[in-house]
Design goal:
The chain is built from 3 helices and 7 strands; from the N terminus they run E-E-E-H-E-H-H-E-E-E. By secondary structure, the protein is mostly beta strands. Strands 1-2-3-4-5-6-7 form a 7-stranded antiparallel β-sheet. It is globular and about 65 Å long.
């Protein structure tokens, strides 16, 4: 099966059995390049069963529908770049800052690989839910790239009429972080 990348392994309980699927990005479109990293919108995913004779469950179909909704993005950094779409740019060079768990939507899909000491950054994509828009801006004879990134937190996400307020850990419902990144083009 051809794929642009892997989001991780999905594990589901189905009765007494445990089902395992490899979640693959099979369709994506580029939204542009910022800070030496190409950013892509996920348009299609596929769930490859890791056991024989697996009937696709409703939960897998629902998850595929969500992932294919056009709200999920990932980035591929070029060699030498360490751009991470799940962390705001001002924190990416800070060695004391923990990884962006609040906006890393497929973090749990990485856990089975980490259990076996697989370096996930070499093999798996990190995904955000939200919007990424990159435009070229002209001012006189100079030009720059402007990027607007809005990330929805995965800590307390849900339909706005069903999830409200703050939980015991201090996470507010439907929290969105928005940042603007600009880069001069020579």
């Amino acid at each position: 099966m051809d794929a642009y990348g892997c989001l991780g392994e999905l594990q589901l309980k189905s009765g007494n059995a445990r089902l395992h699927f490899l979640v693959l990005v099979t369709g994506c479109t580029s939204v542009g390049k910022i800070l030496d990293a190409e950013v892509y919108k996920i348009t299609a995913t596929d769930f490859c069963p890791l056991q024989e004779e697996t009937k696709e469950e409703e939960r897998v179909t629902a998850l595929r529908k969500i992932l294919n909704s056009g709200m999920f993005y990932f980035s591929w950094p070029n060699a030498g770049s360490n751009f991470d779409l799940t962390v705001r740019v001002q924190k990416q060079g800070d060695n004391h800052y923990e990884s962006g768990n609040s906006f890393f939507w497929n973090q749990l899909l990485h856990v089975p690989f980490k259990h076996y000491q697989v370096n996930c950054s070499d093999w798996l994509l990190k995904v955000i839910c939200g919007v990424v828009d990159i435009r070229t801006v002209y001012a006189s004879h100079k030009k720059a790239k402007a990027c607007l990134i809005s990330r929805i937190s995965c800590e307390r996400a849900g339909a706005r009429f069903h999830i409200r307020g703050v939980n015991d850990d201090g996470h507010v419902s439907n929290f969105v972080e928005t940042e603007q990144v600009s880069e001069c083009i020579r």
